[in-house]
Fold 2-polyprenyl-6-methoxyphenol hydroxylase.
Amino acid sequence: MAGTAIVVGAGVSGLATAIGLRRAGWEVSILERRAEPERYGTAFGIHPTAQSALDRLGVGQALSDRAVPYRGARIRTPEGSVMASLPLERIERRAGRPELLISRPYLIDALMAELDALGSASPKFGEAVFDVGSLVAGNDLVIGADGIRSVVRTACFGERSGPRPIGTVAWIGIADFESGVYGETWGSGRFFGMTPIEPGRTNWYAIVPEAGTEGELRGHFEGWHDPIPRILAETDPSTWIRYEMRHLFPALPTFVHGGKVALVGDAAHAMTPNLGQGACTAILDAEALARAVAEHGPTGLPSALRAYDAERRRSAQRVAFASRNLHRLMTTEHTRLRASLLRLLPSR
């Protein structure tokens, strides 16, 4: 074995990192505070660059088997008028492959299956980490993949950067019918999105200012174009997920520490979901870190971590910054100014 690594967190970034390190010959352990894998339903958008990273990790075919292409998405007014198109067709032309959407459970299952195929030990669920120092002392490499409230980040990087609320609340759910209308509808201070997720179902998400109940959420979108009211009326509220939107602020000056610790995914750069790049950046982090470690070997770990930080930090933080600014645009109450800006984009 090249060395021993312990990954804290069994989400997308943690599992993908473990796969990459295992492929590089490392002995890998995974600790996860949750009692079981994340199974709540939502759709991840996987950009072609992240698809290529999954190919290199050996998970690309499993992704293709369960994902659906995302095409023909528009930005609309609450009345249903098209203001612009999301640049999905342009992305597909340039990359030669479409943006894909896959549900969280399917992606987690694919990553878990690949770990098993590589002979890696299964993640240890229900294992909260309190003493990061012991992990650092007992392993060659420690990966903080434990989300926006990362204990690894706090222990090794301090408390200056942390979760910051941005003043809006997100609701997500899955409707048991295909809406046939995809993209986002932008109103004053709120927006609603719909994407495919699998045959016969529609992934939806709504961003509103501090909505506290299901009834209040429906009220925010009363009178909006079809099928938004139908989605909210016909989706079981007990399956809806509500969370206060947060991002990591201020941006970290580095993703690595002490030649033995690296952060990936939300632990390093948690962002608002407006660009749909959270899972993508996590996958790109994981593949880049594992590649750098493999290229430098176990004796060159400090150099590997510096190479990883140089490749990923500024790129990921640019995406996070752009996503936060897009959130401001999408939730602004200055809708005339926003409409004027959107007219600069193609509507078809």
